[in-house]
Amino acid sequence: MTxxxxxxxxxxxxYLRALAAIAxxxxxxxxxxxxxxxLFALGVDLFFVxxxxxxxxxxxxxxxxxxxxxxxxxxxxxLYWIATLAWVLLRIAAGGPxxxxxxxxxxxxxxxxxxxxxxxYHFPVLELGWTLNYEMAFYVAFAVSLFVVARWRLPLxxxxxxxxxxxxxxxxxxxxxxxxxxxxIILEFLAGAWLARWWRGGWVRRPRLGWALALVGAPxxxxxxxxxxxxxxxxxxxxxxxxxxxxxxMVLAGALLIAGxxxxxxxxxxxxxxxxxxxxxxxxxxxxxxxLVLARFGMTGxxxxxxxxxxxxxxxxxxxxxxxxxLLIVLRQRRHVAGSPVPASV
Length: 346
Fold this sequence. Notes:
Elements: H1 11-33, H2 43-57, H3 65-93, H4 101-108, H5 130-145, H6 150-171, H7 176-181, H8 187-200, H9 207-216, H10 219-229, H11 245-259, H12 267-274, H13 276-297, H14 301-330, E1 336-337, E2 340-341
Antiparallel strand pairs: 1-2
Helix pairs in contact: 1-2, 1-11, 1-12, 1-13, 1-14, 2-5, 2-8, 2-11, 3-5, 3-13, 6-8, 8-11, 9-11, 13-14
């Protein structure tokens, strides 16, 4: 059988994954240093759009729910469990209380649960794992859609997500998990998924249009959108964070138009993209430890921010080379689309 023609690796996605991970890292380093760098938190929204894009990009008419979901679980779960347990031990060693057993189990199973430590938003034990609670729910929903013929998968997923968000906004479920999973932020996955569908139909390299989309879709634009949306009646109970789906999708579309089929390539940016999941998982523990050290020396301000950011990045890169990469090799996690590797999402 003649192998299917391969697609070039999407280097643009690698670069955006690196950008998103470092943006979240800077946001948390800023929090620990007393800076409220809210715009950098939008790296999470870019991750969600990229994730939606990749799930469509790496599947085809022959994809099946079991192998797809098994692949996602093996890619995401082991490393997250290791990071969560390491975080528990680290906090206990620093004199913090152990987590509730129910809170820990819910965290490991990607289920939002209430606890005395999680606050009103029901963060998992490793707080940044809240995004993975959304990711895993999206993977399950996408796996279910694979039972349907290819052309109806995305319309079905869109209908389900829109219905979930509508019900969540108007019914206000009392269940923490249902309230969490029906949040409008899940629409960001759909934005990326539809973008991938258009991309698979044929994508032309148009750098000028790409730069325009990327610049217009920058986080500053989102800030303006949110400021205007704040004028809406409070009774509408809108989750304004979901508005970031549009500019995040514009940034992704712009990057694809600029890079085309993969003409642009930077080895170090691509390497940061490969390590983005480890950077995301390990930067918070590193910032916590480094913050304890800096507090002893009384370091504050911009120098503290820079030091914590460097510590978080170093921990993420070390986690990738010493743990994630060897683990993926052992688990034989190689992802391909028509014989060509496509980077996995976080």
